[in-house]
Amino acid sequence: MKETADWTYRLHRIEIKKGDLVLSDQESATCAYIVETGAIAVEDRASSTPNYTVGPGEMFGEYGIIGDAVHYSTARALEDSILMVVTQEEIEEKSAASDPMVHLFLNFFMDRCQSLTVRAIGSEEQNLKFHSRRQHLKESLQSTQEEIVSLFRLKAELERAIENDEFVLHFQPIISLRGGFTAGFEALIRWQHPERGLLSPFHFIDTAEKTNMITPIGLWVFKEACLHSLKFNETAANGQSPEVFISVNVSARQFEDDKLIENFRAVLEETGADPSKIQLEITESVLMTDADRAKEMLYELKETGFQLVLDDFGTGYSSLSYLHKFPIDKLKIDRSFTHSMLDDQDSLEIVRAISGLSHNMDIEIVAEGIETMEQLSLYRDLDCHYGQGFLIAKPLPAEDVYGILGTRMKLSGQI
Ligand code: C2E
Ligand code: MG
Ligand code: MG
User: Fold this and answer.
1) For helices 214-238 and 124-163, angle between their N-to-C axes, nearest 10 degrees
2) Which residue's alpha carbon is nearest to atom 45 within ligand 1?
3) Tens-digit pLDDT profile for residues 85-140
């Protein structure tokens, strides 16, 4: 899937009269040009085609984008023309903000071009300047190079972790704020790293997303959650306790995979898990990136039988009114609101508005990150449906889940 580009350009235009010179050979360079209208004749010493004409949409004077370079061409307007100025500064900023691999490639490639040109037609002084710039470039690219190397090292480690079965799921209870009983669990991945010990997702989910390893890891999480759902519910049924759901995080990157739904369905078939006992937690970015595609996929997932939960709600950009377009069953209020709502009136108002409106929209609320009894009481006063947080329980290894199936938390003095 192609992401929609969201670039902004600091466009600056110049008008050139027919016959005027735009740049000349050996002039020190600070920008390149894109022709908007008109035509420019270029005499280029650095090119295998020494004379050419550029027209609308074409670029010339590209040496101007390389720091400390000089032009090796002369350019003159063949007719009245309008040119867009592309500054070195703007390209450097954009290159630095892009994918580190693109950033490295651009810099190495520009360095290679400049090196060839300077060696072939540059002066002694230009040669010296180029070599001092190369030293500076080496230093400035060091952190990008390290970033790329460590990203790929971690990717290889993640591949190995899947093969060696080093991931585990922990389960954090989610209780009903109405009755206090354990309604379900959020499945949270951990990595039992052979040298670094048990790692939280903070250390690897981001890399898994950047390297697309989130697709196989996410599928592993889903399958493992299905298998645990069967075991937890079998134990619950044997003990005549209420059934429980398992909530699985599905990252936005996984939605880019056309096979996501097909793969989930295959796992349901293979394991025999009941999709009505599985919830999928997605984030607002899924809805924002390609709303039509997201809508279609979410309806298909609903049709398959899953419940859909919008995680970390309030941190993104979607508004409640936008939500009615999507088949969302539950909203998880981000834990930053839970943290601040007792001291900060604005946070409290947001939480109040979210819970009020979602009641009207028939969407259930899950309050995340409850750490104190005061926070829990406030969510109960706002009539939120579910609560999750360290006050109730930390994420637990699967073997500790069996002991709490069917238990109830004492929510206040009266219960
Ligand atoms: P999340 O989905 O918002 O999960 C809740 C996070 O809040 C968990 O962190 C949980 O341990 C933590 N938490 C729960 N209660 C409290 C509390 O009372 N106070 C505080 N301060 N924190 C609390 P964890 O396990 O480190 O997971 C972090 C994030 O990693 C998750 O945020 C989720 O975005 C991602 N993640 C975890 N497992 C998976 C997974 O299997 N797949 C994907 N794609 N992402 C995952
Ligand atoms: Mg979550
Ligand atoms: Mg969350």
Assistant:
1) 20
2) 249
3) 999 999 999 999 888 899 999 999 989 988 888 888 888 888 888 888 888 888 98
CA angle at residue 95 from 91 to 101, to 5 degrees?
155
Q: What is the 3-state secondary structure (H, E, C) of 205-221?
A: HHHHHHCCCHHHHHHHH
Q: How far apart are CA 276 and CA 230, in angstroms?
A: 12
Contacts of 206 (CB under 8 A, 6+ apart): none
Please tell me if the CB atom of residue 334 comes closer than 6 angstroms to any atom of ligand 1.
no
Q: Tell me the three-class secondary structure of 35-53, residue by residue.
A: EEECCEEEEECCCCCCEEE
Q: What pLDDT, in 10s, does the model give residues 76-99? A: 999 999 999 999 999 999 999 888
CA–CA distance, 300 with 296 (Å, rounded to integer): 6
Please tell me whether residue 305 adopts helix, strand or coil conformation: coil
Q: Please state the length of the chain.
A: 415
Ligand nearest to the CA of 252: 1
* Residue 369, ligand 1, Cβ within 6 A: yes
pLDDT for 303 equals 97
The SS3 call for residue 227 is: helix
CB 186 within 8 A of CB 172: yes
- Closest ligand to Cα 389: 1
| Any atom of ligand 1 within 6 Å of the Cβ of 164 | no
Q: For ligand 1, pick from 368, 372, 376, 396 the residue to mutate: most ligand atoms within 8 Å of CB.
A: 368
